[in-house]
Specification:
This protein is α/β, with parallel strands linked by helices. Helix content is 48%, strand content 16%. The strands form three sheets. Strands 6-7-5-4-8-9-3-10-12 form a nine-stranded mixed sheet, with helices on both faces. The chain has a two-stranded antiparallel sheet with strand order 1-2. Strands 11-13 form a two-stranded antiparallel ribbon. The two termini are 43 Å apart.
Length: 402
């Protein structure tokens, strides 16, 4: 972990900058297909935790390299798009923060490339070094590199380290959206985490010595299996969990999307997952529930030949999701591994761990949580029926009974 205490005066300046960014964040709007522009629903707690960690005023979040993980569709990318937009509204040059966002996109002849976005100030300061490292500068605030996200991140960090024009006393954060984790290349992913954390730390020492600035790299990851790397990498990397929307925020989003379903039932099924709510608005609740049920059944059918053991396991998990730990790496029934790999559940690791309070609901434990409650109630429906011959109405009935 980098020591980046900004001192009293500088800390107060960063605190003022953060309040200005958060104020602008409240005015941010996002585009939803078929629904037009809607308000960006409250993520102030998460945004504050991230910005204070970057500034160094929240030590438990102040890592050189952070993995921000969480359920698919919980809004990780949307949050950083909103933060970048808010910083643009405030004026990056008028705050102590600079953001660089790198993400995959299709390029010529369907080749995959990495698009790099940042303020004009960032590209003006780093442009020459980025070009030397093979990154094409498309506009004054955008670059393209034909490489993987990990290689692009290394080049950006090197550019900050060696550029003479890099900002003094700046807090530059690089967002990698979205780092992929494949089971067959998991060892390579772990090695990258370890080596890249060392690279960022080394660059930070050089950047601080020259400019009194700091770099924070934030890797956004939705593949739940990534959390297994914590056991091997440990606190060399910060592990921050971002969850779905709170119940109040979920209801505000549902109102804006024009979803007519009962709000209590909607919470028990989607659990505040923004992508799930958008999908429900698009295809309807019944179709979405069928898809959720099929995902869980597909995950569990591979254990059909061990039904008695499976029945006992899912019974324990229905009582307490943390019981999954008993089947983590279990040779007879690797249930936890299977549900993590298919993004049915998320393992809660850290520090710093959750960056906002998790809901106190039966589908959320202290060590494991179902990414959306519909998966949890699908499990209970299978348990209640004593097999896989269940329907979407069985899942809904379980949710309504709880």
């Amino acid at each position: 972990m980098a020591t980046r205490d900004p001192g009293a005066d500088e800390g107060q300046a960063f605190s003022r900058d953060i309040e200005r960014i958060l104020s602008a964040l409240k005015k941010h709007k996002i585009s939803v297909k078929g629904a037009g522009f809607i308000e960006f629903v409250d993520r102030e707690e998460e945004a504050r935790a991230i910005l204070e960690g970057i500034a160094g005023t929240r030590p438990q979040m102040s890592y050189d390299f952070i993995v921000l993980y969480g359920p698919k569709g919980c809004g990780k990318s949307a949050l950083f798009t909103a933060i970048s937009s808010a910083m643009g509204d405030v004026g990056s040059d008028e705050t102590g923060f600079e953001a660089i966002v790198a993400s995959y996109e299709r390029w010529e002849r369907a080749r995959e490339a990495v698009k790099i976005l940042g303020s004009r100030g960032v590209f003006k300061a780093l442009g020459e070094v980025l070009k030397e490292l093979g990154i094409s500068i498309a506009t004054g605030s955008e670059g393209i590199v034909l490489s993987g996200l990990e290689e692009a991140a290394s080049k950006i960090v090197r550019a900050i380290r060696y550029s003479e024009k890099a900002r003094e006393y700046g807090r530059i954060f690089i967002v990698l959206d979205e780092v992929r984790v494949a089971r067959e290349n998991f060892d390579s992913f772990v090695l990258w985490l370890e080596s890249f954390a060392n690279d960022v730390r080394s660059a930070n020492l050089a950047y601080y010595e020259r400019k009194r600035g700091y770099i924070t790299v934030i890797a956004l990851i939705s593949d739940a299996i990534a959390a297994k790397a914590w056991y091997r990498v440990g606190e060399k990397v910060g592990w921050a969990l971002m969850w779905n929307l709170s119940r109040d925020a979920s209801e505000r989003l549902a109102d804006q999307l024009g979803i007519g379903e009962d709000r209590d039932l909607l919470w028990r099924l989607a659990g505040g997952n923004p992508r799930a709510l958008e999908r429900i608005r698009s295809v309807g609740l019944e179709a979405w529930v069928r898809w959720s049920l099929r995902r869980v059944v597909t995950a569990l059918r591979v254990f059909s030949d061990r039904w008695q053991t499976l029945f006992k396991a899912i019974g324990a998990v229905a009582e307490n999701p943390d019981s999954l730990g008993l089947w983590y790496g279990n040779r007879e029934l690797p249930l936890a591994d299977r549900l993590l790999r298919l993004n049915v559940v998320t393992e809660i690791v850290g520090p710093p761990g959750p960056i906002a309070e998790l809901p106190k609901e039966p589908w959320v434990g202290g060590e494991f949580a179902f990414q959306i409650p519909a998966y949890y109630y699908a499990l209970k429906a299978i348990l209640g029926r004593g097999g896989f011959n269940i329907s979407s109405s069985d899942l809904v009935a379980e949710a309504e009974r709880s």
